[in-house]
Amino acid sequence: MASLEISNLSFSFGGNKPLVINDVSACFEGGEITTVIGRNGGGKTTLLRSIAKQLKASGSVKLRDDDGRPLSVETLAFVPQLSQVNSKLTVFEMVLLGLVSDLRWRVSEEQSQRVEALLGELGLDDLSRFPMSSLSGGQKQLVFLAQAFVSKPKALLLDEPTSALDLRHQLLVMNLVRDYTRRNRAATVVVAHDLMLAARYSDKLLMLHEGRVKSFAVSEKVLRPDLLAEVYKVEASVERTLSNFLTVVPLEPL
Amino acid sequence: MGAGVIDPLIGASPTPSPASGAGVGASPAPASDTGLGASPSTASGTGVGASPSPASGAGIERYRSLNARRRLLILLMLVVTLALSMVDLLIGSSGLTVRDVAGILMEGPRGESSGSTIIWSLRLPMTLTCVFVGGSLSLAGLQIQNITNNILASPYTLGITAGSSFGAAIAVTAGLTVFGQLWLGTIIMALILALSISLLIYQLGRLRGLSPGTLILSGIIMNFFFQALQQYLQYRASPEVAQIIAGWTFGNLARSTWICVSANSALLLAGLFILSRMAWKLTALTIGEDRALSLGVNVRRLRLQVFLLSAFMVAGAVGFIGTVAFVGLVAPHCAKLVMGEDQRFLQPSATLLGASLLLSASIVAKLLSSGSMLPVGIVTSIVGVPFLFVLLMKSGR
Lengths: 254, 397
Fold this sequence. Notes:
By secondary structure, chain A is α/β, with parallel strands linked by helices. Chain A has helices at residues 44-51, 91-96, 109-121, 137-149, 167-184, 195-201, 219-222, 225-232; strands at 3-11, 21-29, 32-37, 58-64, 70-71, 77-79, 155-159, 187-191, 204-209, 212-217, 234-240, 246-253.
């Protein structure tokens, strides 16, 4: 089973500045979704970017394939927050770019087929010829997911994948992420603010507080009123709905 | 195309049945639960990249036909460039007919007639200079727009051309020769200045993360600064030298020589070759630095390489014929308009459109002035300024 293991990751934006993430260690198992939660400025995105090697953090990141063999960290896929993309690239070209490190001048038949098949699987095939700039935010995010999936990464890092989306697209996106994670036994790490969505889709939650791991366990062990009070500075009630979803209702700021 | 038109397409996928709808919950959903497995290629709806499932082929076909159309357009641009080159070659005050020119070209450069001298020593170098300088400036402009993520950026609007022109003026004033050649000294000084300014902009961008507006303002400052320095040189120089320096501020094809043609063709071909090898990475950069980074592109190194390469191409153009404004702004935009963002097609088309634009400017310059040739840089400026204004309004929105 694939795994993504981080050990003692620390990062600061300057020599004298405080550590944004401080000695973070965790092992993310293949086939599981872990959601990183915590306050604004708590180091969530920095953690993701450090794992993706976009920031030079101290510590180590090890990615292993299903047989435990080490894989280059470059092979993991990182999907940044949804930002304005006014590119004239078509959806097909956009997904093809997910293979950028393998693309030669001539796109191979196999590469085209892979893009085509994936677009079909995600129900995006009818969009393939449209430019990115003409899509809605939700559609764009689906295309970015396809771009991440096309290289079949063994680890998937997603920074707030649903934060700008309507309810339906939130579910569509998270369903896709879950399906990909299960079927490819990928280690998936998501950053999210929506605690209920996080609880619903994640196998584990990693709560970051002031750059350190406050708790790393299954949802009900992390989403406790005492921890929420300490980290988010809110009084909250945590309950289960009839459909067995964990809900967090913030009551008062502390 | 509005988003609303497309939106139903995703809605076309089957929604989860009430029974499976609960699968959105905490437990792993059954394979068919995504509600997205709409297409025939996903009978199981399970793949999400897991196993290669047969593709329907419609998307590939559309992609192929789009690329076939792009190739056809490039061919068309090539034909237009060749046609404009012929027209440019034919126009002049010597009264040579089409048949004369064809005959002289067939005869080769060894012809002894005065017509042969006019074509082989004057007009052909000028026409070819138009092709290679226009192509170089446009290709450099395209890449500068790409790496700065700024639609207003170009060698001219960022001040690289002005600096390069000042470098050439220093060499001319000082009579700086390299291996006894003034043109070599001029080109080297133009290059040094072009490289320095490019590195300065690169560093400023790295340290301060220049916004598009700030970048253009710094270009304006750069332009003011180097123009002032150039005027100072003019003021101090002898009348003859002052005239040459003044001529450098607007590109003049009268300075074309076979050396100029060789140097600029070598720079353009080398540029095209190197950039073609980076085509996919440069395409990835068009969707934003963050995303290019997340796709594994070393953005910092790519930017630096492309900036330096562009500086070489700009210096080649400016060092020989002076400042030709706006070709590097107008032509890449036109290319993007018809080609999209795939750099494999965008690079050759921007090059050909740049060549065509400068050839057209040269033809207009010849038609407007019967005696001494109107500097082509004046024509490109007159066309370029309204274009820049439109872009400015567009980017401000």
